[in-house]
């Protein structure tokens, strides 16, 4: 009887130990996937997840936004100095009234970027639909 109890105990312990193994590591994303961005997103970035529709307001300035694949983002940066990343397949409508903003539109994205405050940088990758208005002057490509 003791031998049977010991064997059952070892079987249960073996199952518990086996169940606690960590999951296999996830493969790294290939370059150019929607998760790849033109530049790293700041720690304070607000995200519009894939397929979502988001309205962002940044009255104080110094905000960051990431619009993931298939999302639609409407961004008002009244305070200026905002960073905007529009991933492939996303639609981004951004206004930077305060100036000093930076916006990147990845391949397959549709981006409209208005910079009334001037001193903005806009990057439009090949295979994007981009419309840029720089009423404040001194705008440059990324």
What would you say this structure looks like, in words?
- The chain has one domain (42-141).
- 13% of the residues lie in helices and 32% in strands.
- It contains one helix and eleven strands; from the N terminus they run αβββββββββββ.
- The strands form two sheets. A six-stranded parallel β-sheet has the order 1-3-5-7-9-11, with no helix packed on it. A five-stranded parallel β-sheet has the order 2-4-6-8-10, with no helix packed on it.
- The longest helix is centred in the first third of the chain and has 18 residues, at 2-19.
- The radius of gyration is 24 Å and the shape is globular.
Provide the succession of SSEs.
Answer: HEEEEEEEEEEE
The side-by-side strand order for the widest beta sheet comes to 1-3-5-7-9-11
Count every beta strand, where a strand is a DSSP E run of 2 or more residues. Answer: 11
Q: Tell me, what's the shape?
A: globular
Total count of helical runs of at least 4 residues: 1
Beta-strand share of residues = 25-35%
Assign a percent range to the helix content. 10-25%
Mean pLDDT: 79
Count up the domains: 1
Low-confidence stretches: 3-37
Biggest sheet features: 6 strands, parallel
- Rg result: 24 Å
Structural class: mainly beta
Gap from first CA to last CA: 77 Å
Features:
142 residues; 1 helix; mainly beta; 11 strands; five-stranded parallel β-sheet; six-stranded parallel β-sheet; disordered N terminus; globular
